[in-house]
UniProtKB/TrEMBL annotation:
<feature type="domain" description="Methylated-DNA-[protein]-cysteine S-methyltransferase DNA binding">
    <location>
        <begin position="5"/>
        <end position="67"/>
    </location>
</feature>
<dbReference type="GO" id="GO:0006281">
    <property type="term" value="P:DNA repair"/>
</dbReference>
<dbReference type="InterPro" id="IPR036217">
    <property type="entry name" value="MethylDNA_cys_MeTrfase_DNAb"/>
</dbReference>
<dbReference type="InterPro" id="IPR014048">
    <property type="entry name" value="MethylDNA_cys_MeTrfase_DNA-bd"/>
</dbReference>
<dbReference type="InterPro" id="IPR052520">
    <property type="entry name" value="ATL_DNA_repair"/>
</dbReference>
<dbReference type="InterPro" id="IPR036388">
    <property type="entry name" value="WH-like_DNA-bd_sf"/>
</dbReference>
<dbReference type="Pfam" id="PF01035">
    <property type="entry name" value="DNA_binding_1"/>
</dbReference>
<protein>
    <submittedName>
        <fullName>O(6)-alkylguanine repair protein YbaZ</fullName>
    </submittedName>
</protein>
<keyword id="KW-0227">DNA damage</keyword>
<dbReference type="GO" id="GO:0003824">
    <property type="term" value="F:catalytic activity"/>
</dbReference>
Length: 96
DNA sequence: ATTTTGACTACTG
DNA sequence: ACAGTAGCCAAAA
């Protein structure tokens, strides 16, 4: 894992706005990460100061259940345990 | 050097 | 909707 990719992944995650989410694959695509797994790995190792609750699986489920209350706190409506990706998924061209 | 272990995804039945 | 499988890739054992 080279330093540059690592930091790019962190930067991309930091750009996800409050009230939106992005998938691991989204971050990977934005940052040239070799695989979505790497994004998960970076979050585990060096994600303590990032909004990691905004990174979810592409099907709307979350890796860590505590993300749900945190995201609801940011204003997302999540009736069950799955996030409505069509509604909340963030794209970098939305105004950032 | 090989195997195992994940904050992953896509495909199949 | 749900389980199994196969690709994926860095780290640690």
């Amino acid at each position: 894992m080279d330093e540059e990719t690592h930091e790019r992944i962190r930067a991309a995650i930091a750009r996800v706005p409050r009230g939106r989410v992005a998938s691991y694959g989204d971050i990977a695509a934005m940052t040239d990460a070799p695989s979505p797994r790497i994004v998960g790995w970076v979050l585990k190792e060096d994600g303590g100061d990032l909004p990691w609750q905004r990174i979810v699986r592409t099907d709307g489920t979350v890796a860590k259940p505590q993300q749900l209350p945190m995201l609801r706190d940011e204003g997302l409506e999540i009736p069950g345990d799955k996030i409505d990706m069509k509604r909340y998924r963030w794209a970098p061209d939305e105004g950032d």
